[in-house]
């Protein structure tokens, strides 16, 4: 779920994989592993990803029900 949502938000925000990996200061292969589901970012990097893409971490993890229970509309992220 995380990799799919990460890819979706990256594309929605108009970034390429190389651009986002450069912004995050990580290797392209590392970033590709996040989207592909073979790697997982550290907590600090996860925060940076969410801030860069302007998306709640819970959305990236597929916790739509939780966000809705808080009154957050997930429609704007889809």
Give the N-to-C terminal Cα separation: 13 Å
How many structural domains are formed by the residues? 1
CATH class: Mainly Alpha
Shape: globular
Secondary structural class: mainly alpha
Strand content: under 5%
Q: Output the CATH topology.
A: 434 Repressor (Amino-terminal Domain)
Kindly report the average pLDDT value. 93
List unreliable stretches of 5+ residues. Answer: none
How much helix is in the residues? 55-70%
Task: State the helix count.
Answer: 6
Number of β-strand runs: 0
CATH architecture, by name, is Orthogonal Bundle
- Largest pleated sheet: none
Could you name the CATH homologous superfamily? lambda repressor-like DNA-binding domains
Evaluate the radius of gyration. Answer: 12 Å
Order of helices and strands: HHHHHH
Describe this structure in words.
This protein has 78 residues and is mainly α. The protein has a single domain (2-77), classed as Orthogonal Bundle (434 Repressor (Amino-terminal Domain)), CATH 1.10.260.40. Helix content is 63%, strand content 0%. The protein is built from 6 helices and no strands.
Any descriptors?
mainly alpha, 434 Repressor (Amino-terminal Domain), 6 helices, globular
